[in-house]
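User: Working on a comparison across species. This one is Cyclic pyranopterin monophosphate synthase from Desulfoluna spongiiphila. Can you predict its structure so I can line it up against the others?
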Amino acid sequence: MKEFTHIDEDGAVRMVDVTDKAATDRRAVAEGRIVMNRDTYERITDTRVKKGNVLETARIAGVMAAKRTSEAIPMCHPLFITGARVDFYPEPENHAFRIEAEVRVKGETGVEMEALHAVSVAALTVYDMCKAYDKGMTIEGIRLMAKSGGKSGVYQREGA
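Assistant: Here's the predicted structure for Cyclic pyranopterin monophosphate synthase from Desulfoluna spongiiphila:
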């Protein structure tokens, strides 16, 4: 059986060769959170940010990030994404938004990095668009929630 590793026989780093792996339906879900002050949260929810609709811009940025993950993460395979979504869930009591990304592919390797990258870039986009109001925003808890497909099977984070 072929070993899938980033290290070749000489100890050098290389992209994993997935040539012999079967293409399967793969899905990954990631989440994160951006926390801000009350005024910034209200500006976003009332669409009063001077740069435009923050959440829609961040949604597009997250989807685009999923599609271009291999350009940002060394040794990450370029994938033909068959589906990607980024959603925002308001948390008014915390002045925060939970960000969730789901990415799908039919391929030889997983989409965990694409989902994580989508959440990260969506959160950074919110920060960028609102930093004039609140430089103290925090991005936190970016993590894989679920994945399916491929040899390693199904993963579901406990409590998710």
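For your comparison, note: The chain has one domain: 24-148.

User: Helpful, thanks.
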